[in-house]
Design a protein that fits this description.
This protein has 103 residues and is of the alpha+beta class. The chain has one domain (2-92). The chain contains two helices and four strands, in the order βααβββ. Helix 1 packs antiparallel against helix 2 (37-47). The chain starts with a strand and ends in an 11-residue tail after the last strand.
Amino acid sequence: MALDIRWRTCPKCKTAADTKRKKAVELVSVMYGVVDEEDYLESREKANLEIDLPCNLVERYNFEHCTDGLRIIYKCHCNECGYELIHNHLVEFKTPQLGKCDE
């Protein structure tokens, strides 16, 4: 069974956008006193705007029944930058012993 979900922001794209914003703020800080007040205030306002990142990370969960348990596979990839992550996890089934109850 597989399930596709597309609703997250890519962590690599977010880091790149945060770095770009930080550099813009640093650039504005060195402009203080060098350019006229109107240009400085306009540049500062633009640098401090929140960056609206699209939800471009596609996530997929696979659930596979194995002889030794249930394998859960998580995959995600970004349509913008190519970021990719794969994680596998096995949940082992315990064989119940006859005559004993789990408490």
